[in-house]
Design goal:
The chain contains seven helices and 13 strands. The chain is α/β, with parallel strands linked by helices. The strands form three sheets. Strands 1, 2, 3, 6, 7, 10, 11, 12 and 13 form a nine-stranded mixed sheet that branches. Strands 4-5 form a two-stranded antiparallel ribbon. A two-stranded antiparallel sheet has the order 8-9. It is globular and about 85 Å long.
Length: 303
């Protein structure tokens, strides 16, 4: 006798997009693909890091952006020489948040409230600037080196052994976690993250060459460059073939045995007369080139 009972229909499968919705996972679409989340710029004092970061409002896509500028070095006075940035401060488009680096016991908890932290139980707390309750489009940290010095002083004072002595090993471990958490929060968060840093020389373990890198303490200096979308070194240079000679701001972000830099956009040459508008224009041009190829291929295959 033949069994004519119909087999039960298979349950419909979830699409990957639907699965992400069910899990509450963040997804990336083609409209945001390639757009930077976090960028770091390092240079010696006086190279114009503060003016560079403040210039984010000169980028067409960010001309109306609300900027939270965490000033750890009181370096924004130089903006008085830039009418556009000064106007943005006067109108409240840029809100400067001053952090007193001389009082780490007060400043570190304030930074935690702004940027988030991990408590003693391993629970992560979202900072106010990265929460949905604050209207902000850009978070700038100037400078990350000094911000980390605040963290180190705080952890050195608060990390103790069981018998009450200072525990440097625990302090540096806490500092590494805190430093990485801040950068990852910027990299994964909604607002654009801009970070400036001083520089230091560090011997490359593989080549033995002294390499310029972000000035950071502890193990953080070995891995923070891997977090942002772009890490650039900026400095002033003169063109040998130019008369009279002028100083130009130059950014290097392609792999080098002498500087720890990176970018995810395939930039291989130095940027002369560097600015954030020129950088974003170059990134947009790269992304537009990709979409042009897709359009051309789609058109050819549809014939």
């Amino acid at each position: 006798m033949t069994d004519t009972t119909a087999a039960p229909e298979a349950a419909p499968k979830l699409s990957l997009a639907a699965l992400a919705d069910v899990l509450g996972a963040k997804t990336k679409n083609s409209a945001t693909l390639g757009k930077p989340s976090c960028m770091a710029f390092m240079g010696e004092p006086g190279t114009g890091k503060s003016t560079l970061l403040g210039g984010i409002i000169k980028v067409p896509a960010y001309k109306d952006a609300k900027v939270a500028y965490v000033d750890v070095e009181n370096g924004t006075d130089v903006w008085a020489l830039d009418p556009q940035i000064t106007h943005a401060v006067e109108t409240g488009q840029i809100q400067v948040i001053n952090i007193d680096k001389t009082d780490p016991m007060t400043s570190k908890p304030l930074l935690d409230q702004l940027l988030g932290y991990t408590d003693a139980n391993g629970q992560k707390h979202v900072g106010a600037l990265l929460s949905d309750s604050v209207d902000v489009d850009v978070i700038a940290l100037d400078t990350f080196s000094t911000l980390q010095e605040i963290g180190l002083a705080y952890f050195m004072a608060t990390c103790k052994t069981t018998d009450g002595r200072q525990d440097p090993l625990a302090a540096y471990g806490a500092l590494a976690t805190w430093t990485n958490d801040i950068l990852w929060a910027l990299q994964n968060g909604r607002p654009l993250g801009l970070v400036s840093s001083h520089t230091m020389e560090k011997k490359d373990k593989k080549t033995g060459i002294d390499k310029m890198t972000m000035k950071l303490a502890g193990s953080a200096k070995d891995n923070v460059a891997a977090i942002p979308d772009l890490v650039a070194h900026i400095g002033w240079e003169e063109r040998e073939d130019e008369e009279p000679r002028y100083s130009h701001l130059v950014a290097n972000m392609s792999q080098s045995p002498y500087i720890t830099v990176k970018n995810r956009y395939g930039f291989t040459e130095p940027f002369w007369d560097f600015s954030l508008p020129s950088l974003f224009a170059a990134i947009d041009e790269k992304i537009a080139g990709t979409h042009a190829v897709i359009a051309a291929v789609t058109k050819s295959t549809s014939k």
